[in-house]
Write a structure and sequence with these properties.
Elements (H helix, E strand, L loop, with lengths): L3 E6 L5 H10 L5 E8 L6 H7 L3 E4 L2 H5 L2 H10 L3 E4 L8 H6 L4 E5 L14 H9 L4 E8 L9 E8 L6 H26 L1
Parallel strand pairs: 1-2, 1-4, 2-3, 4-5
Antiparallel strand pairs: 5-6, 6-7
Helix pairs in contact: 1-7, 6-7
């Protein structure tokens, strides 16, 4: 069986990137081969070093003008892309280079609390402000709009009226770390 190679895109802390690297570390069919970031100070870079995963920092221009897509396709043999706290909209050239091969995780039950500018703490604050009693994660394919790709999986968690945005974030992050790697593995192996 052909080995699938994942590139992770991350912009910040990288806890989901690390969860993916740890999960696939000894997987005979799927590996994390590359971490890409638009932020040279992203802590995700340090997390990748722990797993000896190659890191590449890129500019907005390289991202938009196909240099990143060409690098992934031609030089690395990447078969799939996982977004893990990556904040830029994926350009059409990358979507075309990896059709239905880019997955994202969103810290809410889409379609609620999705779209441009809805990430991290902002999502949890909106959940709290609206008095929701459940929240969760959505793992979805990426298209050319924020958080509108085909949903692969959703997992939910109950929250209480007294949970702060930080407590909501902690509960959601537990779901992310547990289910994102499993759903990615199932998605890759079923195609």
């Amino acid at each position: 069986m052909k080995k699938h190679k994942i590139a992770i895109f991350a912009s910040g802390n990288g806890s989901n990137a690390e969860a993916l690297m740890a999960y696939f570390k000894d997987n005979p069919y799927i590996s994390v081969d590359l971490l890409l970031t638009n932020n040279p100070n992203a802590y995700a870079i340090e997390r990748a070093k722990k797993f000896a995963v190659l890191c590449k920092v890129f500019s907005k221009q390289d991202f938009e003008n196909e240099a990143v897509a060409e690098y992934l396709r031609d030089n690395r043999g990447i078969t799939h892309i996982a977004l893990a706290g990556f904040l830029w909209l994926i350009p059409e050239n990358l979507i075309k280079a990896f059709p239905n091969k880019i997955v994202n995780i969103h810290p809410a039950l889409l379609p609620k609390y999705g779209g441009k500018g809805m990430y991290g703490r902002k999502v949890h604050e909106a959940v709290r402000a609206n008095g929701d009693i459940t929240t969760g994660i959505t793992i979805h394919l990426v298209n050319n709009k924020y958080d509108e790709g085909e949903i692969l999986a959703q997992r939910s968690v109950d929250i209480s009226a007294t949970d702060t945005p930080e407590e909501i974030a902690r509960k959601v992050q537990e779901l992310e770390h547990r289910y994102y790697p499993e759903v990615i593995e199932s998605w890759i192996r079923s195609h």
